[in-house]
Amino acid sequence: MTFNARRLNKEDLDLPCQELAIYLLGKVLVRKLEDDTILKGRIVETESYLGGEDKASHSFNGRRTSSNEPMYMPVGTCYVYFTYGMYHCFNISSRESGAAVLLRALEPFQGVEIMEKFRSNRNKSKQAVRKKIKTSKLCDGPSKLCISFDITKENPIKSI
Q1: Domain total in the chain
Q2: Which of 1, 16, 132, 136 has the maximal Cβ count within 10 Å?
Q3: What Å distances lie between residue 148 and 59, 71, 82, 102, CA to CA?
Q4: Coiled-coil regions in this chain (predicted)?
């Protein structure tokens, strides 16, 4: 699979939250690991968290904490949050204060074997480790996406 693409700039992301969520669909997330391995996946599902009035948002009612502070940072700020004490989720701040887009799912197409390894290493069940994970299931949820791309709070994607 080849693409004629360019790296997104912060200016490309300067959109209202709902528009940014739509704009990101079809874009490619690229991660270069320390060993120079490249992981790529097409963004196929996003979710917008509108901030202040959105009850599902961490910044509902103007709530501001150290955990949700990136939602108030400049447009295009990439951040990872830890949820339920066990899952990481990757987000990008949008134009509105306290609003962000969650990357929910990717269609992986480069570095799939490495993504499978990350997922298998995370899986506690020995039976599940022996069973190959379908490529279509590698990144079909926000935490699976982070596991497959080795994205954690300690090991985030540093820029868009």
Answers
A1: 1
A2: 16
A3: 27, 24, 16, 16
A4: none
